[in-house]
Amino acid sequence: MYTRLFIIDSILKYTMDDNCTVYKTMDYISKKWTLLILLEIYKGKLSKKRYSEIKNKIPDITPKILSSRLKELENEGLITKHIDATSFPVKSEYALTKVGLDFIGIIKDIKSWALRWKIHNKLCEQLDCKDCDL
Questions:
Q1: Does residue 101 share a domain with residue 84?
Q2: Cα angle 68-29-114, degrees, rounded to a multiple of 5
Q3: How far is CA 44 from CA 16, 48, 72, 94, 120, in A?
Q4: How many domains does the chain have?
Q5: How far apart are CA 78 and CA 99, in angstroms?
Q6: Is residue 94 very low, low, confident or very high in pLDDT (cuts 50, 70, 90)?
Q7: 40 and 82, same domain (yes or no)
Q8: Which residue segment(s) compose the domain that 20 sits in?
C-alpha cells in the first residue's frame, strides 16, 4: 500500500510541475468567474464593455473580485483596458484582445461538450454565445 501511494504521489508531482503548460494556463483561467467575465465582454454587439455592465451581468461577483480578475486578465493579455478621461466620470472599458477572442473558441468548445454530454438547453443549442441573453 505504501508503495502504491508513493508511485501515485510521484506521478502527481511529475504531471503537476509548475513548468507544465497546462498547469501555468490553469493558474489564471481556472479562477472563479474568469470564464464568465471573458464571455460577458464578448457578448453583444459592442466590442467594449464598461465595468458596470460586466458587474450587472454577473451579480454574484463582488466588486473586489471583479476588479482583481480584470487586472489579471489584462496582465495575461486576454483583455485590454481603455480609459476615456475626456468625459466625467472617467470611463473605463474592457475589450478582448486577439488572444482573448481566440480563447472564446475554447469556451464555445466547453459549451459544445456540455450540450453533448451534460446539459440539455434548447435555447443554448440554437444561439451563438455572442447573441445570448442568459
A1: yes
A2: 130
A3: 37, 9, 23, 13, 23
A4: 2
A5: 5
A6: very high
A7: yes
A8: 1-30
